[in-house]
Amino acid sequence: MNVLSIFKTQQPMPAPEMTDEQRLQEVEVELSATESALTAAVEAVGRYNATHKDFRRADLDGRVYFRVGELNPDRVRQQLEAKCDQLIRERSTILGERSRLLMKMGVVR
Fold first, then answer.
1. pLDDT tens, 36-52?
2. Beta strands, E only, 2-86
């Protein structure tokens, strides 16, 4: 048996596990980035809506009506709204993890 073969068969050392405080810092950075992206997406939808009429909504005699189940043939609006929905779901997931970490650390009850 060769002495060097011992070193070749050893498993690499696992990376040290993150502490809750370190993970919370990462989550805060992720949350900030997601909220910035969500703000930009909502502003993009607003700008698009300002220049393109949304036919799912109608104003009649001072009342606002929304067509239920109306399919939106506007592909650009669909993509912009889908991006907003995706970012809202991501933000929700991150907020849930943040909440779990804060409770685990005893910061909130």
1. 999 999 999 999 989 98
2. 57-60, 63-66
